[in-house]
Amino acid sequence: MVDQARTTANFRLVVIRGRAYIERIAPAFQTRDLFTIWGILQLLRLYPGRVPDLDLMFDCVDWPVVHPEQYEGENATVLPPLFRYCADNETLDIVFPDWSFWGWPEINIKPWDALQKELNSGNKRVKWMNREPYAYWKGNPDVAATRQELVKCNVSSEHEWNARIYKQDWLKEIKAGYKQSDLASQCTHRYKIYIEGSAWSVSEKYILACDSMTLVVTPKYYDFYSRVLMPMQHYWPVQDDSKCSSIKYAVDWGNSHKQKAELIGKQASNFIQKELSMDYVYDYMFHLLNEYAKLLRFKPTKPPEAVEVCSESLACQAIGNEKKFMKNSMVRSASDAGPCDLPPPFSPEEFKALQHRRKKSMKQIETWEQKASKPVDSKPRELHAFPSPKRFI
Predict the structure, then answer these.
(1) Burial of 43 (0-12, 13-18, 19+ CB in 10 A)
(2) Where is the Glycosyl transferase CAP10 domain (predicted)?
């Protein structure tokens, strides 16, 4: 079953007696594989001797590929256990924390532990009530049709959808020294938009951490923590098939219910700061790998093509930001306390109650939007000294 996942995997990881062996199968985009492996090595440093022997395949591409219906019927093969960064309701890929928790050197995004502190400080620069009363998004719209549709929601001479959309030109930004891409300085609007790219986006945690009420355009994919987020508690849902009017309504609602909107934003950033600390990220990794290892029906052995890797060997070969981020995210000492206890899974009743609560909140907002959908003047309001529309994409 493990070997079946080789078809799309980028690397194979084998852990034997606390030592890691990597078999490179296919090149990954940028340094995703390198920093994913680095993160696993830090887990082994944090909990030495506690991670059990295991053998797994890891795919660093965005899109999940394990569709259970392809492994059914008389001629079906066994379903491959394949690790990656996200999945959806139609796939069974095993979801693992993404590489950016240890840094994304290609676009100068620091390791999460340091960036988390910067975002927390950035929140305090502009009080929520003093922030721009619009929805903000900055990113690359070229990676997905849904983002290209979002661009149409930008302010123009014809429409005011309460959105301020900026295109991030990474090639230009790299040449300029990342002066316009500092995440901690982007917490200046009351509302921020999260929208998926080609699949889920690592930007989710940075957006939620801003104290702004996050407007989440209906997502298809989930990462390892996002399914616990609740509408009207951690974010405001935006309809994918009517983005512009849905964004406008969300902002109008928030500006009419400022304290409630501020609370939603604060609850999301509190969740990101507390529940998504690196301690808990490592604990999730530990429990996931531990539960996975329990399912193995064979004794892991070093593959012929695999080589042993350790933190020192990877960091020694790295240069520039890669080396800097590895140094900054290295686990300095083992944990005396050990990982947290794994909580029990939801009971069927608890899970149904959670689903019901989510659906009820979503339906409530849909009803509000429908009642407010009568014709209105769509000409832009006065922008209160906001930059000219020509400054937007």
Answers:
(1) buried
(2) 50-299
The model's confidence at residue 377, banded by pLDDT at 50, 70 and 90, is low
pLDDT of residue 373: 81
Quote the CA–CA distance of 155 and 162 in Å, as a whole number: 7
Res 381 pLDDT > 80: no
